[in-house]
Amino acid sequence: MTRLSMKTINQLNEKDLRSKIQETRSELSKLRVDSAKGTLRKESGKLKPLRHDIARMMTRLSEMRNKK
Fold first, then answer.
1. In the chain, where are the structural domains located?
2. Distance CA 68, CA 58 (A)
3. I need a surface site. Which of 27, 28, 57, 63 has the fewest CB within 10 A?
């Protein structure tokens, strides 16, 4: 999965945003399991960007809720 820009995140509706958050969280959990097993070599730099993407999406979701 590639990094998401704020421009892309802002274009998503609430339903798509929720599904993208769920998808990113599942990918993050898989990477964390690999990290715990010690098999995460090349992809070790993907953990922090995924966490940041989730935070950005959660922030946008919160903004959308507050506008209503």
1. 6-67
2. 16
3. 63
